[in-house]
Amino acid sequence: MGALEGKVAIVTGGTSGIGARSVELFVEEGAKVVIAGRRREDGKALAWRLGSAASFIETDVTQEPQLRAMIQHAVERFGRLDCLFNNAGNPGKVSRVADVDIAHFDEVIAVHLRGALIAMKYAAAVMLPQGSGGIINMASVSGLRAGFSALTYSTAKAALIHLTRCAAVDLGQSGIRVNAISPGPVLTGVFGKAAGLANEDAERRAEAARAALAAVLPSWQPLTHMGSADDIAHAALYLASDASCFMNGHNLILDGGITSGRPATVMLAERAAFAEMLATRAA
Questions:
Q1: What does pLDDT average to over the chain?
Q2: How far apart (Å, rounded) are the C-alpha atoms in residues 126 and 164?
Q3: pLDDT on residue 217
Q4: Residue range 78-98: average pLDDT?
Q5: With 80 as the cut, is the pLDDT of residue 199 above it?
Q6: 219 versus 62: which is more confidently predicted?
Q7: What residue ranges define each of the domains in the chain, with the CATH number in brackets?
Q8: Given strand 83-86, what is the order of strands in its sheet?
Q9: 144-148, 155-159, 174-178: lowest mean pLDDT where?
Q10: Which long-range CB contacts under 8 A does 49-52 form with residues at least 24 apart?
Q11: What are phi and psi of 83, to 5 degrees?
Q12: ∠ CA(206), CA(209), CA(211), 5° rounding?
């Protein structure tokens, strides 16, 4: 029996990247899954490939009526709701504080924070009578450490991590668990989107970011390999399953050690350079 046998899940942003891989894995593990996203053709194709265990509904997470319809669709199609994975996201535009585009800030907050809260609101209305359920929010190490992503994106993710805790203490007494996942750099189309590519081009060119990431990761991350969509999907599977039944209000960090500290080789090289400079100036 699969880890999600008999469960019904919704994955927002489920048409590509981490979301699509999570949909596939959830179905492999026995779940019925609603794929929610804006990319109609990709969503329909994924649902068709996965068969009767999956259903697509076009959803813009900034639109409350569409999120309400998404929850209703899951219940009408599959009879219940056991897991909501708030995975939909958009990249922030990099800027300094003095130059920040407030309209763009509002857009990022609407997707990552407001949309997650609205989805939780309607999911909770279904889960509360059941007395069970799990909610997973896609956060980021950028919500824990500044200087890695745009300030708009980082701020939204930091707020989402705290919203996760707030929701966990609110809903936990009713048997509903709320947790977050904070990945480090993961090779998906998000890097292309941040560079201004259209969604389809960004997904096709995801591999092009590998060399660029490989050049900077050694200075950030103790583990030498990149995270993958599969790594994050398996973390989501754990949080959606009964294996994590005692985990609530937790932010599961999957970052190769970035938040633990700089790689030892970076620190040692800087100390050596400092010692050399000190010796030279003292001479």
A1: 92
A2: 18
A3: 82
A4: 95
A5: no
A6: 62
A7: 8-282 (3.40.50.720)
A8: 54-58, 32-37, 8-12, 83-86, 133-138, 176-183, 251-254
A9: 144-148
A10: 50/23, 50/24
A11: -145, 135
A12: 135
Length of the chain, in residues: 283
- Measured between alpha carbons, how far apart are the two ends of the chain, in Å? 71
The residues carrying an active-site annotation are 153
Rounded CA-CA distance 155/8 in Å is 31
User: What's the distance, CA 31 to chain centroid?
Assistant: 19
Continuous H helices in the chain: 17-28, 40-50, 64-78, 102-109, 115-130, 151-171, 190-194, 199-204, 209-216, 229-240, 264-282
State which amino acid sits at residue 241: S
Q: How many whole angstroms separate alpha carbon 163 and alpha carbon 153? A: 15
Using alpha carbons, list the distances in angstroms from residue 12 to 16, 70, 149, 279.
10, 9, 22, 57
Distance, in Å, from the CA atom of 53 to the CA atom of 78, rounded to the nearest integer, reads 9
Helix axes 17-28, 40-50, angle to 10 degrees: 20
> pLDDT grade, residue 189 (50/70/90)?
low
188, 16 Cβ separation under 8 angstroms: yes
Distances (CA, A) of 191 to 198, 210, 240: 11, 10, 27
Rounded CA-CA distance 25/2 in Å is 10
Name which of 269, 179, 234 is nearest 29 in CA terms: 234
